[in-house]
Amino acid sequence: MPKLTVRGEPGRISGALLDPDGRPVPGAEVLLKAEGGSASILSVRRLAGVVPEAAATALFALRINTECNCSGPADLTLAEMRYRDGVQSHAASFPAPSGRMLNQTPAGLRLMATGSDRLALNTKEFTVSPGARFTAEIPLGITTASAGSGYIALIFLNRQGREMRRERLAFSPGEMLLGKAVTDRSGRFQLQPDARPAIQEQAVRAEFPGNASLRGASAALR
């Protein structure tokens, strides 16, 4: 297995890739990712499937410490969500709840709740195409401590407005691609990420996906 190393330096990330015999691997692509939980760094989460045959509309739902086997504090940022199927395309956002600790940031709506708070928010309903394949994109930034406190769901409704199915996206930390680097003749690489706050707030992981002659490898910078 190849050996990948990574280290942090002021303003940049660097490392090296060696083959199993310790020789440098030139021209290899290395991905640098920030992983862990941060409410200020959004990653796009996705839901996908088939719209129920009897569905007429759908909505996005946000649940914290309610309608679930979940409990705990929540600190998250949500941006505009998007839904697409064979015919329909919609953008949706949650209304800002009253009496909560909220901030409207450039990234989106920042929401913080304690472990005793219960919160249920819905977007407006939008039309869907029965039987079509759908995708939903949810830009979400969330802290590690928020895992298990709730979820975001896509809820399909019939013509009478009754819930038919609920596709859930549980709160969990995500990751952000900081950039890609290519190893030089000595097997070394370096990157000056644009998203420098991510390096300070999250763990950084380097990944070599592998190629025709070498297996993949990864290394963490913490």
Helix content: under 10%
Q: Counting H and I runs of at least 4 residues, what is the number of helices?
A: 1
Biggest sheet layout:
7 strands, antiparallel
Number of domains: 2
Q: Give the overall form.
A: elongated
Q: Indicate the CATH architecture of the largest domain.
A: Sandwich
- The pLDDT mean sits at 89
Cα gyration radius (Å): 21 Å
Number of strands: 19
CATH topology of the largest domain: Jelly Rolls
Strand portion: over 45%
The CATH class of the largest domain, by name, is Mainly Beta
* SS class: mainly beta
SSE order, one letter for each helix or strand? EEEEEEEEEEEEEEEEEHEE
Low-confidence stretches: none
Distance between the termini: 22 Å
Short description:
The chain has about 220 residues and is an all-beta fold. The protein has 1 helix and 19 strands.
What does this structure look like?
- The chain has one helix at 196-201; strands at residues 3-9, 12-18, 29-36, 38-50, 57-64, 74-78, 81-84, 89-92, 101-105, 108-113, 119-122, 126-127, 133-142, 150-157, 163-170, 174-182, 188-191, 203-208, 217-221.
- With 222 residues, it is mainly beta.
- The chain has two domains: 3-35 and 175-221, Immunoglobulin-like; 38-172, Jelly Rolls, CATH 2.60.120.
- Strands 4, 6, 7, 8, 9, 10 and 13 form a seven-stranded antiparallel sheet that branches. Strands 5, 11, 12, 14 and 15 form a five-stranded antiparallel sheet that branches.
